[in-house]
Amino acid sequence: MSLMSLTAAELGKKIQAKEVTAVEAAKEALAQIREKEAVLNSFVTVDEEDALRRAAEVQKKIERGELTGPLAGVPVAIKDNMCTQGMLTTCSSKILYNFKPTYSAEAVLNLEKAGTVMIGKTNMDEFAMGSTTETSAFGVTRNPWNPEHVTGGSSGGSCA
Q1: Shortest CA distance to 50 belongs to which of 75, 33, 71?
Q2: Of 8, 39, 87, 115, which has the most beta carbons under 10 Å away?
Q3: From first to last of its 160 residues, what are the pLDDT tens digits of the chain?
Q4: Longest dimension (CA), the chain
Q5: Please, are residues 76 and 119 in contact by the beta-carbon 8 Å criterion?
Q6: How far is residue 72's CA from residue 74's CA, in Å, rounded to a whole number?
Q7: pTM of the entire structure?
Q8: What are the CA-CA distances from residue 96 to residues 77, 88, 103, 137, 160 (Å)?
Q9: What SS3 state is found at 146?
Q10: Mode of pairing for the β-strands spanning 117-122 and 75-79
C-alpha cells in the first residue's frame, strides 16, 4: 500500500507508531510528484532539498518525544497564496514571479509547529480569482482521475 493513499491522520499514526519515518513519507510524496506532475501541473514550487532536511529534523524530534501530535512528520503542500518565509509565493501570477516573503502566514506557522513537512506550493487560479484553476500563470491543473478535465475550484493544485 502506498503511503500516499493514506489520510493525513492515518499516516501520522504510522509515523508515531514508528512503522514509517517522516523522511520515508516525504520521499514517497516527492516521488509521486515527480511521477505525476508533468500531467497534473498541480505545483508551482517544489523544494525537495528543504523538504528532506525538514523531514530529518522532524524525525529526530519525534524520536526524542518532542513532537507527538497527529500531524508530526506528515508531508503537506501549501496553496500558493499563503505566505511562506523564504519560499516563492506567487499567488499563481506572473506579477509575483520572484516574491519570497520575509514571514509565514499564521496557518503555515501552525502547521510547522505541529511538525508537518512542507514539500511545496500548489497551483491555483491567479489570486484565487476563478473557479477552475485554468487562469494560473503556471498553466491548468488537471484532474488526476481524468486528465482531460480540470480539478475545479480556485484550489485546483491542492485538490489534485
Answers
A1: 75
A2: 115
A3: 799 999 999 999 999 999 999 999 999 999 999 999 999 999 999 999 999 999 999 999 999 999 999 999 999 999 999 999 999 999 999 999 999 999 999 999 999 999 999 999 999 999 999 889 889 999 999 999 999 999 988 899 998 9
A4: 47
A5: yes
A6: 6
A7: 0.94
A8: 19, 9, 16, 10, 23
A9: strand
A10: parallel
